[in-house]
């Protein structure tokens, strides 16, 4: 699930229920139903869906198709079977109590080494990692500057943090970062003196737009404006993990700027077909998180099957076995792009393809995303309509995700379906 935009989160929409109005809901359930009805009226009500297993996946974040890979399954099962029968399956508690193990610590070391980071700390999910780190690391009064499309979990962490100003900058815009940083510098001399910390929050690939962040350009802005080294980068690599960089190590390592990142977050629920996340950081930061990150301290640690599945995925990455999947994914991205470029479009039907060249996430921008997504789904292709509040008003789209396990034939079938929707929409418009 993607970012809720600031001010349009799911919680804010319930606040308009007036307790004094004569038509006010009577009970809690009335209030909940009224909130749902308001969402329904805006065509924004979320629902759980179960799709047929035969449907072609153009939606999940299983970018390398590892979740159905026999190599991954075999390695995972071997790791499970190679432990003695008495080896506990459950962690039995939080990391700080009974939930730690030599296996978990070895896994952290393995992942830290793979990512060329000083240390790694395992969280139960990317959500927990972002909430735990951002709620605890920025110190009172520190400044947080965040990309406008940052994930909802980062917003949650910022909301809980003791930081001072939290300012948004235009999406993936070094100029936007420069402007907002300059205005903070003008307000607070401690920033230029180097005594106030400034955190810059970005993702390396954005979940909805699928674009890769201009990380080097951001570094140049921070180096120029904060010469005392009090600028700290926080980069969430959720969508890049396994897909981008050397052996899937991420965009930061592709650019060779790992030493410039204060914190990197890699999540395992997407291309790594598992669950959980690692925070890559220095030893003092890791120690601090063990002491202060509440989403780490007050939760049961991941059990052995999850640790083994993360280990299996990282063994595949580090042995280079997933590189062919990375390459195959890029071939399919190029194929889909060609097919989309060949579509016959019409003046009367708003339709645009938004795509960063090497990204497996492609946006089909239209004012009728639900209709397009429904037609594709009815014909066995899983794609999702993405609506506000997940993305800003006016940015509605159908999100298409490619996977190493997709085929050219499936892509051609999907593009035929998009063409038939365009033709049908054009005919409908012409009749009006
Ligand atoms: C950029 C980003 N960060 C963090 C998360 C949360 O990770 P997890 O699903 O492991 O909680 C997600 C998506 O779920 C995401 O897209």
Automatic annotation (TrEMBL):
Residues 56-415 form the Aminotransferase class I/classII large domain. Transmembrane segments: none annotated. Belongs to the class-II pyridoxal-phosphate-dependent aminotransferase family. BioF subfamily. GO terms for biological process: biotin biosynthetic process. PROSITE patterns: AA_TRANSFER_CLASS_2 (PS00599). Pfam families: Aminotran_1_2 (PF00155). Keywords: Pyridoxal phosphate, Transferase. The keyword Transferase applies. Its cofactor is pyridoxal 5'-phosphate. GO terms for molecular function: pyridoxal phosphate binding; transferase activity. Residues 1-27 are annotated as: Disordered. Residues 8-23 have a biased composition (Low complexity). This is Aminotransferase class I/classII large domain-containing protein.
């Amino acid at each position: 699930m993607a970012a809720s935009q600031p001010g349009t989160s799911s919680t804010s929409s319930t606040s308009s229920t007036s307790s004094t109005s004569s038509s006010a809901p009577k009970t809690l359930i009335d209030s909940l139903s009224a909130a749902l009805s308001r969402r329904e009226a805006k065509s924004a009500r979320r629902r759980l869906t179960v799709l047929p297993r035969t449907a072609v996946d153009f939606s999940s974040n299983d970018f390398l198709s590892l979740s159905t890979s026999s190599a991954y399954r075999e390695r995972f099962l071997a790791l499970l079977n190679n432990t003695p029968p008495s080896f506990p399956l459950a962690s039995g508690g939080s990391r700080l109590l009974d939930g730690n193990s030599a296996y978990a610590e070895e896994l952290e070391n393995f992942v830290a080494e793979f990512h060329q980071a000083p240390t790694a700390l395992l969280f139960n999910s990317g959500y927990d990692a972002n909430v735990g780190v951002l709620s605890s690391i920025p110190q009172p009064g520190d400044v947080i500057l965040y990309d406008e499309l940052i994930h909802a979990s980062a917003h949650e962490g910022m909301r809980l943090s003791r930081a001072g100003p939290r300012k948004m900058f235009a999406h993936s815009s070094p100029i936007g970062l420069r402007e907002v940083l300059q205005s903070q510098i003008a307000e607070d001399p401690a920033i230029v003196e180097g005594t106030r910390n400034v955190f810059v929050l970005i993702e390396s690939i954005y979940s909805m737009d699928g674009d890769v962040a201009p990380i080097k350009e951001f570094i140049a802005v921070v180096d120029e404006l904060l010469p005392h080294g009090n600028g700290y980068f926080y980069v969430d690599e959720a969508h890049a993990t396994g897909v981008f960089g050397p052996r899937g190590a991420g965009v930061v390592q592709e650019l060779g700027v790992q030493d410039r990142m204060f914190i990197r977050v890699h999540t395992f629920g997407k291309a790594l077909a598992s669950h959980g996340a690692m925070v890559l950081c220095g030893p003092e930061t890791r120690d601090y998180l063990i002491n202060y990150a509440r989403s780490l301290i007050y939760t049961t640690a991941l059990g052995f099957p999850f640790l083994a599945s993360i280990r299996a995925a990282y063994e595949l990455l580090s042995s280079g076995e997933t590189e062919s999947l990375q390459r195959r994914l890029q071939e399919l991205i190029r194929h889909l792009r060609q097919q989309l470029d060949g579509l016959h479009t019409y003046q009367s039907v708003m339709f645009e393809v938004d795509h960063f060249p090497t990204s497996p996430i492609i946006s089909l921008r239209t004012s009728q995303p639900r209709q397009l997504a429904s037609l594709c789904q009815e014909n066995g292709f899983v794609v999702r309509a993405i609506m506000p509040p997940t993305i800003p008003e006016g940015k509605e789209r159908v999100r298409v995700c490619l996977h190493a396990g997709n085929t050219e034939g499936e892509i051609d079938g999907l593009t035929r379906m998009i063409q038939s929707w365009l033709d049908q929409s054009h005919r409908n418009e012409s009749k009006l």
